[in-house]
Amino acid sequence: MKKLILLASAAVMMASFxxxxxxxSKTSADAAVPEYKLMDLPMxxxxxxxxxxxxxITLFDGKxxxxxxxxxxxxxxxxxxxxDGALHIPFTGTGEAGAEDGGDLxxxxxxxxxxxxxxxxVDRGANSGVFxxxxxxxxxxxxxxxxxxxxxxxDNHIDARLGENGNRQSASLYDMIPARPQNSKPHGExxxxxxxxxxxxxxxxxxxxxxxxxxLWTPKWKAMLDASKFSKEDWPLAYELxxxxxxxxxxxxxxxxxxxxxxxxRNIRIKVLD
Length: 274
Description:
By secondary structure, the chain is an alpha+beta fold. It has a single domain (9-272), classed as Sandwich (Jelly Rolls), CATH 2.60.120. The protein contains four helices and 13 strands. It has helices spanning 9-20, 28-31, 219-226, 236-243, and strands at 57-58, 68-70, 81-83, 86-89, 105-111, 114-122, 127-134, 148-152, 191-198, 201-206, 209-215, 252-256, 263-272. The strands form two sheets. Strands 1, 3, 4, 6, 9, 10, 11 and 13 form an eight-stranded antiparallel sheet that branches. The chain has a five-stranded antiparallel sheet with strand order 2-5-12-7-8, with no helix packed on it. The longest helix has 12 residues, at 9-20.
């Protein structure tokens, strides 16, 4: 089935990715990828956000949702608020973006190479995530196109015991690479998270310790997708989008997940790298 791609150059890039991943001529499996449409929603001017002498840009002022909106929405979901200087979404029990007034929150600017830092805490048994390089796909969840930095109460959420070798615990690349060492703090306490993205190299940090590294657009990246819940057989559209993570320009949004459970984020900042 022919896919809808907003930018003509995307087709060329996708062909090259398939080639390096061991692909060749089109097969019936390629045709099974559903149609999709990339959204084109408003972005903010990063120059209007405060930057310190070291180049760190503050993305959340601790008071307002300035610069933030919903995934595939032009305004922030009503469920998100500022609570004691932190971005917060409460417990709803409705699962991933299930509440009518909920949904994932994204900062409305596309990033490519960057250092990203944030602090997070969760309620007992809570689950959330931080997404990078998000493509806004009409009618699809944010994680269909984006690697996820897992946010989790490891002691009380069942996801910590699922997956393989702890690859669904906090700071892990969700369902693919476990964070090692696993040094998260208990629910109700603040943790510091960090993500480095540079020309396809992605590094996760937790509480100032490097816990994992991976490399997009490589045979190893393809192999990890093949072995995950995002495999071509299990979820062909997610496989297509994640294989070509970041789209034709290798850039995307940063987002915070609404998983129906209480989570807080603060001290959110980014340094754009050349």
